[in-house]
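Hi team, as promised in this morning's meeting, here are the two structures we talked about. I've kept the exact order from the run log so nobody has to guess. The first one is mostly here for context; it's the second one we should focus on when we meet again. Sequence first, then the predicted structure tokens.
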Amino acid sequence: MNTDAATVNRALISVSDKQGIVEFAQGLHELGIEIISTGGTATKLQAANIPVTLISDITGFPEIMDGRVKTLHPKIHGGILGKRDAHKSEAKQHQIKWIDLVVCNLYPFAKTIQKPNATLDDALENIDIGGPSMLRSAAKNFNWVSVVVSPDDYAEVLQQLQTQGKINLELRKQLAAKAFAHTTQYDAMIANYLNKDFLTLNFKKTIDLRYGENPHQQASAYQQIDNAEKNILTAKQIQGKQLSYNNIIDADAAAACIKEFTQQPACVVIKHTNPCGVAEAPDIYTAFVNAWNGDSKSAFGSIVALNQTCTKQIAGFLAKVFLEIVIAPAYETEALNIFAKKPNIRILELKNIMSPPDDLCFKYINGGVLTQTCDNKNILPQDLKIVTKKKPTETEIVDMLFGWKVAKHTKSNAIVIAKNKITLGIGPGQVSRIDSVETALRKANHKVQDAVLISDAFFPFRDSIDQIANSGIKAIIQPGGSIRDKEVIAACDEHGIAMVFTGVRCFNH
């Protein structure tokens, strides 16, 4: 095994992502390194007056079949795979020259299949064959050869060549690992696309966290490579301590919940992944104040998410309380100046916080993973079935549909009490529905006159209805479907409460 630093005399460059490639190639040329290249990459380098040897000049064979066959040749792979000591005479016999550096990234398969009108033919034409072969050859032979798949590594490789004249073993090994990861992720995307029975998730570590849910647990954050949507792991952190494991989970829950509210300015306050205050209003400050006051006690140490620019008024309020994170698509300069005086508050800018939610959700269990389509069901007024003698008012319907969006992001069993598009009390994650009702009523401090109640699943008994009979709640929305629906409806009729069925539930385990 060669453990010495490796000289680079010849480099093969063939990239789909051409970011920074001209500058990198220019640096190699200035060091006297011969550059071999293909197709579009060669054209780009030649246009920048960088001397290039074409692949066809090496192989003695033209690129054929619309470029499908160009690098699959012994003079290319022999030049990459050969051991510089053991295979020296054999390479000379077959007139194979060593290739010491391979710079390659692959056809944009992921971007192609994400296009709305992409066809199977489009996808197949963007499956790279020669590229993965060269990458695997170079990565296998990292004892002698360096391989680069990411523009992020150009600077370090060039620096070593400029300062040392060679590339050391440690860097070659790191680059080889990245190359194998690159081809693994690429093949996984293709397999997932062609056969839905395969599920290979591609993640890249973004950071090691201080610890997990508890200080004795180790933790890291990995970002899904083939999910281009902006998310908490891509948010810009403007100030504050490093995000913790729990911070990231709660912030993700906040971002998911705020996406529900697209018609008006809205604010979501999250504590331990559950909403504790949510509101919509004509302006963002009113939405924030109403959400915070929905349960100001629970808001202590919370996460606040806004769907519009965070104003100096909101910042002035939050600077006086204890909280972990603020998430918004933008911030007024005055707001950032106020937050700067409270450096422990983590400020996240997520520009397209209202981007569409994911289509597929995952839940990891010991030894496996569960998948489901995400609950992106939007309940509309025409979907509701009125089942009681008393009919809800239009205002009550608006509040019920508002509360339903909150219930979707509240752990089951979930009960939400709302009025004027403000949550008054939320009962999350209780082991019986009546316990959730009692929690929501207590959180609302029984100030629920003319409010509505939302239940994420059906009422198994009429006891919950009897519990709220004298509370002031005027209408209930629930999925329906219990074998005791008639009893529950009868209880509502007895107490003069309107009830509607959605026909679907919104469990959130």
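And here is the second protein, the one for discussion:
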Amino acid sequence: MIDLTRSLVDYLRGDPILATKLGAFRGYPSVFGVSPIPEPATTPFIVTQSVADTTLDKKSGVMREIEQDIGIYDDEDGSVADIESIAEYVREKMRGSFSVPDWTISTVHVSGPTISDVEDLHGRTLSARIILDR
């Protein structure tokens, strides 16, 4: 099993600039790999999940293409400018490097943000296409 979501959560939680822009949960920035998020978490928050996982043909070894959504949400009573700023920051951060146990990241393409408002929350979603190799 590929632990891309856990690696991405750890990568985003470990960013000190991003930590100042997000709410908190149990002493950590509000970044989650599951939905729904825990009730006592404060906003704004990020939730990321794999939405597709494809094995790619390769002569030797294995390649996987994973589509990962990264949603940024804040209370509806706040400004969307805050979540759009966070989304742009995360988009740029995805250009950096993070590690996934037992895999090498070959490619990361990020699109968005797109509007993903839900009941009582403003939302923006980034879609990442991540190719892993080993």
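Starting points for discussion:
The beta strands are 24-25, 28-29, 31-32, 45-56, 63-75, 104-115, 121-133.
Residues 75 and 134 are 41 Å apart (CA to CA).
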